[in-house]
Amino acid sequence: MTSCSNSSPLRLGIAGLGTVGAGTIRLLRMNADLLSARAGRKLEVVAVSARDRTRDRGIDVSTLRWHENPLDLVSDPDVDVVVELIGGSEGPARALVEKALSAGKPVVTANKALLAVHGSALAKLSADNHAPLLFEAAVAGGIPAIKTVREGLAADKLLHVGGILNGTCNYILTVMRETGKDFDLVLKDAQDLGYAEADPSTDIDGIDAAHKLTILAGLAFGRPVAFDSVQVEGIRQIGAIDFAFARTLGYRIKLLGLARLTDAGLQARVAPCLLPHNAPIAQVDGVFNAVVAEGEFVGRIMLEGRGAGAGPTACAVTADLVDIARGHTIPVWGVQASAEPALRACPAGTGAGAFYLRLMVEDRPGVIADITAVLRDCGVSLRSMLQHPAENETTPYVPLVLVTHQTSEAAMQDAITKIDALSVVTDSPVMIRIETA
Amino acid sequence: MTSCSNSSPLRLGIAGLGTVGAGTIRLLRMNADLLSARAGRKLEVVAVSARDRTRDRGIDVSTLRWHENPLDLVSDPDVDVVVELIGGSEGPARALVEKALSAGKPVVTANKALLAVHGSALAKLSADNHAPLLFEAAVAGGIPAIKTVREGLAADKLLHVGGILNGTCNYILTVMRETGKDFDLVLKDAQDLGYAEADPSTDIDGIDAAHKLTILAGLAFGRPVAFDSVQVEGIRQIGAIDFAFARTLGYRIKLLGLARLTDAGLQARVAPCLLPHNAPIAQVDGVFNAVVAEGEFVGRIMLEGRGAGAGPTACAVTADLVDIARGHTIPVWGVQASAEPALRACPAGTGAGAFYLRLMVEDRPGVIADITAVLRDCGVSLRSMLQHPAENETTPYVPLVLVTHQTSEAAMQDAITKIDALSVVTDSPVMIRIETA
């Protein structure tokens, strides 16, 4: 690790000048005095690297050394800390972080995919080279979720961690609830407003939330978690009709990431959930994120704030830089990296829960008897059933909602497969887990 | 500062073995392995001091060195860190912390009164002797509020900070809202349940919340704040009738501490407030605390959790110990202590706001005209007025509620003084500030 005396500036090399990179430079300039006072030394950007030198980013970068190749930031002797804001789990972002850590240079990154996918190897690289790797901006934007889990709750044994980790999904689900509109329409509006990407799949299919959950779980349980073992489900299948049923039942629908250590092992899942409408996390709407953690001693903690955007993300990146300037460094997963491989979450179908099941069924006598017989045969016990009359005379199908008692996932999957095969059922059944948190 | 090699245990001397002290020892024992892994070394209690050696605290302290005088923990050469859990802004707690810092020994404390009242002098003592002073447990129990403001949000200029900082008051106000019972009755129940002290004044008169707000404001604005300049109002005057009116108007009543840096200076106040019933902080009920902060870049952050109790408080104390073991230390107010005196908040009457004013007035024609004339003459503009019919035939008085537009505090105080002097008004007027946050 590069050593600097406390009075010399901490010299930064920033790779990636998109929204977050430009926002970070703007913040470093606007808050320069405040940052010097808090960090005990100046934070000074000396070099940058991005794809297009001529693009107008709303900030003047003409006085900064420009590297065409981001990897050259590592060999630049004037750069004390490499700030990686390129993104992506592979390619130049990964190469840059690996090269910097190998060279013993501290790295600050906002890259959730990189940490989720390569967190185990990067922790080892960081430890072997005494080069800190900080990534507060990778989870929940401006909410200091990583610091809270890794330091604030360091004294407690955590039982679960997670939350509303994707602002795009939360925005879409909130608007669907408020307007009664269908998914496709609301997604289109979100894209027009800049809340969803042109290719929205990373967000709406739950991948982004799963990256963040993988990181939170690794911090909470002190060991990297294998990203490919996390169960991931997105929100495409949720219809306007599900919000109507959820309201009737007293629930809200949220995309939750939750990781729990159970006797059977780690349960880690991103999926849409029904939550009691008055649960604190059910109140977190729009683009806001919420992170929850529960510990044996501390009980339940919830943090809420903006999960994305240039300002909040720049704040998180710069808070990491202040920590480095203060000499506060910490192993990647909060404990010294061990030789153990990443922790794998239990496979799907091994847990239990209560479920909401929405079917489109033929509107004729005997159908409900057929379906409830399947559930009985699979050992799934029903708590309630709701049916809405057909809204549309042109279709012979009506929505039917079944709410189960606590049951095993395996039994539920078995039942769904059998129900899906019934001739009276059209469309794929929509299953949503019911959470109490 | 005592220097310890990273492989040697961090040896603790704990003063005060009440709920929190005993809870901390229990946590240190139960989570010993986890703490060693996270801190990079063992945390080991070697000595304690408390008033009564024979009391059963549910933990075995017979193997620990016992000091009759807590000050002897400082001179005990086996003690690396002094943990002060005696409490109170003066007496043995203050003497112990001052002696430890003067001797260069790190101190961890849960003592909000001490930090609020002597924070300026203690910061100097800590800096002069290179002895860290950490106090995460002093504010909002298990919520890592101090770490969030001082480190997590270190990159941003904070605009305001505060929240629901006293669980006893929040519990009482929540039960009053839910049951419609009056203050005295609910306080009595809270005392029976152990949620309020036999002498509840520190809590219900707002002193405890003001201690915590003083600390949060000092951290947010990078300079200790003079406790005696903070405006403090408690909840004794709030009646069941106010909850009825608040509900009608779409508000909830919470005791909020809020500190804002304005062009006129620091506004810092603990007072009951009306909040829109759907505001996130208005949803925080019972003994839970919430801390809010708003920064220029990060926007609004809210943290919610248990603000008191042995478990959460022990977690916060121990997280500070882990920080010390990791070598993470930071100046008391987040920046190097300067020679400047503590920042004083603006005096009462210098701010502005919208207000709820509840009067008990004679139930006869002309009364409302008299009162609204006073408001007009004082330049206070009304937004709405509500009157409930007399519930009780035996009294000639009825409650009258006036809600103002934004107005100066000075005008409001002037109007209240004049209204209070009207012969048609009985009881003291109850004024509650309306907040949007």
Give the topology.
The structure is a homodimer of 437-residue chains.
Chain A: E1 10-15, H1 19-30, H2 32-39, E2 43-49, E3 65-66, H3 72-75, E4 81-84, H4 91-102, E5 107-109, H5 112-128, E6 133-134, H6 145-152, E7 158-164, H7 167-179, H8 183-192, H9 201-204, H10 207-221, E8 231-232, H11 240-249, E9 251-262, E10 265-276, E11 288-295, E12 299-306, H12 310-325, E13 352-362, H13 367-377, E14 382-387, E15 397-404, E16 407-408, H14 409-420, E17 425-434
Report on the structure:
2 copies of one chain form a homodimer. Chain A contains 14 helices and 17 strands. The first copy, chain A, is of the alpha/beta class and 437 residues long. In chain A, α7 (167-179) crosses α8. Helices cover 35% and strands 25% of the residues of chain A. In chain A, strands 7, 8, 9, 10, 11, 12, 13, 14, 15, 16 and 17 form an 11-stranded mixed beta sheet that branches. Chain A has 3 domains: 10-142 and 315-325, Rossmann fold (3-Layer(aba) Sandwich), CATH 3.40.50; 145-306, 2-Layer Sandwich (Dihydrodipicolinate Reductase, domain 2), CATH 3.30.360; 352-434, ACT domain (Alpha-Beta Plaits, 2-Layer Sandwich), CATH 3.30.70. β12 (299-306) of chain A pairs antiparallel with β12 (299-306) of chain B. Chains A, B: NADP(+) binds at residues 15-22. Chains A, B: NADPH binds at residue 112. Chains A, B: L-homoserine binds at residue 197.
